[in-house]
Design goal:
heterodimer, A: alpha+beta, Immunoglobulin-like, 6-stranded mixed β-sheet, 6 helices, 31% helix, 40% strand, flat, B: two-stranded antiparallel sheet
């Protein structure tokens, strides 16, 4: 916080010509280990404007936290001969494993759909890059399905009033990560928007990774699959045998 | 008690998982079924990724089978000769099943086939067992002698070459248990289960094995088939979560012992009726899942 205030003072005194965003995150590293049941990230910072503190009142702030993108097949069930079976499918080349967007007021009021699409602001502006689709209606249909599915799992999230701006300068946003987050490098992007245009942005990284025992197990299963499998079999046989012996005593 | 699962990448309530293991372990000890047909769907329902659920449930079934088999071994309830023939068939079957699996996966219809298999197999077997045990119960209560049952299915008698299976009280062709083992092996790969709920009724009604050795011998076969399945998953999908399996094991090995103890005191006919009821309930649930509009019609899978 001290560092932040010092930076803030610096920018206010020197009077940079462009609006500047100074950002920070409560945690730059999230450890997935025993006891991890999810985390809450606090993303905060300040906007400084060359025209002075009064001018920043008309800024809007949008914060996006995005997990590593993956390639996925999305299937849709249809009723065929009385049964719900997978019928249609599409391949999406970049689906973020986590996506949360937080703003100080509804994104539709902050900016126009085109700008929202360019910066991927909002759940309806995600670029999923379907590899097979040429029909926009079909594309939106599948995108809606994916967003709904991921929202139910707590992996996609949109909050139109989660950013609070104090005195027109300091802002803060909270984002909850469920325990089912995938490990990887997450990016946190903060956008300052004025009159529908993005005037400043800042990017930070959050590393989500396994630690200690959890990391050792995950590495073991990947690097020495045969030994890991034998160990799993041995553990189950030994545990079954011990239980058999223990109960035979009574 | 929150436990983070390193392969499934999420945290779960450890006590719920142990409780689930205890429940399926009891089933395993009482009826000689692995309980995989119950564990895997329940784990998926709890939010664990399907591949991790299937892979880890397999090693849980291994533990429960060892535990239950030891209990049955002590009272001479395992026909090892029959067991070895069944295991050989099971290994051949898993190979065939793996081929079928990749074929269906390429067509994108593996889920539907698995669900249909569950409904038809569970429904058919459950109904057959329920009918038989109700008939026996009625005959017993009215004081009449139960109708003389045929020893084994006429088709089994036609197969060439006969072996003696002393403990099972049978003199039949080894091809019959080999084919049965193969069939359950195929089901194991396709449905991600041990196959006990198919094996036990088939041993009773098709092979005509003596009821005292059915459960122990079925556990023997399940033990080896699930060991192979765990290895297969560790090598291919890498989805065996040892923490999840450990939690399930704690519950299921104790449950299997309690179950095996209970099984020796309870009436076998009533036990069969109870198993039939459970199997029919799962089949009904699966059938509803196929015909009702699902809550979520979209599914994702990683490429």
């Amino acid at each position: 916080m001290k560092r932040l205030l010092a930076l803030l003072a610096f920018f206010l005194l020197t009077g940079a010509s462009e609006p500047v965003l100074v950002t920070d995150i409560s945690q730059h590293r999230i450890e997935l280990r025993q006891g991890f049941t999810g985390a809450q990230l606090l993303l905060f910072g300040a906007i400084t404007s060359p025209e002075g503190a009064n001018a920043v009142r008309d800024y809007d702030v949008v914060v996006v936290l995005e997990g590593p993108a993956r390639q996925m097949v999305l299937r849709e069930k249809r009723k065929v001969a009385g049964m719900w079976v997978n019928a249609e499918y599409t391949t999406l080349r970049s689906v973020p494993s986590f996506y949360a967007v937080v703003a100080n007021r509804p994104i539709r009021q902050i900016t126009d759909p085109r700008t929202a699409a360019i910066y991927q602001l909002g759940l309806d502006s995600l670029q999923l890059s379907p590899s097979d689709s040429i029909d926009p209606a079909r594309e939106t249909h599948f995108a809606k399905g994916l967003v709904d599915l991921m929202q139910r799992q707590g992996l996609f999230h949109q909050d139109d009033s989660g950013v609070t701006i104090n005195g027109g300068v300091l802002y803060s946003a909270r984002i909850d990560l469920p325990s089912s987050v995938q490990p990887g490098v997450y990016t946190a992007e903060t956008f300052a928007v004025r009159k529908g245009r993005v005037v400043a942005s800042a990017t930070a990284r959050v590393e989500v990774g396994k630690q200690g025992f959890e990391k050792a197990v995950a590495d073991f299963s990947q690097r020495a699959a045969l030994a890991y499998g034998l160990m799993a079999v041995a553990v189950s046989v030994v545990m079954g045998w011990i239980a058999g012996r223990l109960f035979a005593l009574f | 008690m929150d436990v983070y699962l390193p392969i499934a990448n999420l945290s779960v309530n450890g006590l719920i998982i142990v409780g689930l293991g205890l429940l399926t372990g009891m089933l395993s000890g009482i009826f000689g079924v692995g309980g995989g047909f119950l564990t895997t769907p329940l784990l998926i329902f709890y939010g664990i990724p399907p591949t991790v659920a299937a892979a880890s449930a397999a090693s849980q079934v291994t533990g429960a089978s060892v535990s239950g088999m030891l209990a049955h071994h002590q009272r001479g309830g395992v026909d090892y000769r029959m067991g070895v023939v069944l295991v050989l068939g099971g290994v051949l079957g898993t190979g065939l099943g793996a081929l079928l699996f990749s074929l269906l996966q390429a067509l994108g219809q593996i889920d539907t086939v698995i669900n249909l298999l569950y409904v038809s197999m569970l429904g058919g077997i459950g109904a057959m067992m329920a009918r038989e045990s109700i008939q026996t119960l009625r005959a017993g209560s009215s004081g009449a002698r139960p109708a003389r049952k045929r020893r084994h299915h006429p088709l089994v008698a036609r197969l060439p070459g006969r072996w003696r299976f002393y403990r099972s009280g049978l003199y039949i062709s080894p091809l019959a248990p080999l084919l049965l083992g193969m069939f359950t092996g195929i089901l194991t790969m396709l449905m991600g289960i041990g196959g006990g709920f198919v094996l036990v009724p088939a041993m009773l009604y098709i092979l005509g094995m003596s009821a005292q050795v059915v459960v122990g011998t079925s556990l023997f076969q399940i033990l080896f088939v699930t060991m192979a399945t765990t290895m297969m998953h560790a090598l291919t999908t890498r989805a065996v979560d040892i923490v999840l399996a450990g939690l399930l094991l704690i519950g299921s090995v104790s449950g299997a012992q309690l179950g095996a103890r209970f099984a020796t005191t309870a009436s076998p006919v009533k036990l069969r009726l109870a198993l039939a009821a459970i199997v029919l309930a799962v089949a009904a649930r699966m059938a509803l899942g196929l015909t009702w509009r699902p809550d979520e019609i979209f599914t994702v899978s990683l490429l």
